Amino acid sequence: MAERGRPRTFDRGEALHRAMLLFWEKGYQGTSMSELTAAMGINAPSLYACFGSKEALYRETMALYDDYEGGGFGSALAAAPDARTAIETYLMGSAKLFTRPGKPAGCMVVLSVIQAAGVSEEAACELRDARAEMQRLLEARLQAEAAKGALPASCDISAIASFYITVQQGMSIRARDGATRAELEAVARGAMAAWTGLTRART
Amino acid sequence: MAERGRPRTFDRGEALHRAMLLFWEKGYQGTSMSELTAAMGINAPSLYACFGSKEALYRETMALYDDYEGGGFGSALAAAPDARTAIETYLMGSAKLFTRPGKPAGCMVVLSVIQAAGVSEEAACELRDARAEMQRLLEARLQAEAAKGALPASCDISAIASFYITVQQGMSIRARDGATRAELEAVARGAMAAWTGLTRART
DNA sequence: CGATTTATTTATCGCTTGCTACAGAAAGGT
DNA sequence: ACCTTTCTGTAGCAAGCGATAAATAAATCG
Asked: How far is residue A195's CA from residue B106's CA, in Å, rounded to a whole number?
């Protein structure tokens, strides 16, 4: 079953990647079609034929980000020997991810809380779910630790997860504001200083 | 020295306040002139005559926010009996500020890291300075505590300030994402659990 | 009063936005 | 060869953007 018709003259994945970098940096509304077509090296009709619409393209770049840029945290959390190490790895990994040279600072999913303004309600829900998923992952890891008996049954797992998620999201903003990797790592270490207090059994 | 010419038919402060709420909620690019004029109850020429341009209006709303909405933290920090209480008050106050019913969620200055996209370089610097000012305030309060001898001389004051600023900025995002005041307060308490570890003398 | 000053209304301006109609080009199918 | 299918470039759509020109209205000044 060979492909019929005139073959595409550009690499779809490469074009998608370039679109992702633009959306990541400037948000949905902040990125115009002319910027997109210029960066992707194609004309508007090719973009629409290949991706459907600006919003569909945006959602696809978000999925690409989830898979290749923001990813790996789920397995990393599971692989860590204990929950404390898992969360520390999560924060230290975020510090590195948020400050990679040549890539926009901060996390595309986190910043989309604001950057996705103008997108449809449906897409906004998708993004919100992606954010909630991270909280769910953290809670699951903590729950597993509690099941092992390594965490007091009385401690508030969702509050712990919420705290570390908040720190990580704050790191996204700080990265956007110019914070270096070293600064973010110091923040991560600061957050880990709360571990003992957070996981102590309730009185 | 009475005023010459036809008097203005709208209240400048009231119009500015309404513009602030719009910019706060939707950001600079996300707010259009037609939305502004509709919300302010005036026509475009009145807006330009009174405020100069969309960007000038934006900067003026930011100043208004600084004075009346985000303000009070400087004096609150100084009034607290000790640095720990000062920071706890800062975070708990933020939790309240970020979730006031009838007002956009989160902090206008913090969210401007992203929401101010499209604004001039000069205005962006102003906003960045406003953010840096908060870090400076926290550091000054910690420094004062250290001068009293209530904080080990060896602890890293800028790292402590950086950590709590990051948490507060993270809370802004969480608020935008729908977090309740109670959730944010739990995060604030979580951050305070790091205090002992952060302020312990270095080994 | 008339002259001056300022604000308001109406009706745009030039430009960019996201998007698409159309004609031509390059492949496979038969 | 010819037809079909798919992609590409040009050219342009309606709508909205930020901003303004011109005419009118309402105040003070002399």
From this structure: 26
- Write the pLDDT tens digit of every residue in B128-155: 999 999 999 999 999 999 999 999 999 9
- Determine the residue type at B10: F
Q: DSSP 3-state helix, strand, coil percentages of chain B (rounded to 5)?
A: 70, 0, 30
* Token pair recorded at residue A84: 């404390």
What are the percentages of helix, strand and coil residues in chain A, rounded to 5?
70, 0, 30
Is the CB of A55 less than 7 A from some atom of nucleic acid strand C? yes
Cβ A33 to strand D below 7 Å: no
pTM to 2 decimal places: 0.96
The candidate with the shortest Cα–Cα distance to B21, out of B102, B127, B112, is B102
Contact A186 B156 (CB under 8 A): yes
Output the CA torsion B114→B118→B124→B130 (10° steps): -50
Nucleotides of chain C touched by protein CB (<7 A): 4-12, 16-22, 24-29
Residue in B closest to A163 by C-alpha = B187
Sequence-distant (6+) residues with CB within 8 A of B117 are A26, A27, A30, B27, B28, B29
C-alpha dihedral sign at A103, A42, B115, B171: negative
How many residues belong to chain B?
203
Q: What is the pLDDT of residues A87-96, one digit of tens each?
A: 999 999 999 9
CB contact under 8 A, A30 and B118: yes
Distance between CA B160 and CA B158 in Å, rounded? 5
DSSP collapsed to 3 states, B66-131: HHHHCCCHHHHHHHCCCHHHHHHHHHHHHHHHCCCCCCCCCCHHHHHHHHCCCCCHHHHHHHHHHH
- Condensed to tens digits (0 to 9), the pLDDT of residues A131-141 reads 999 999 999 99
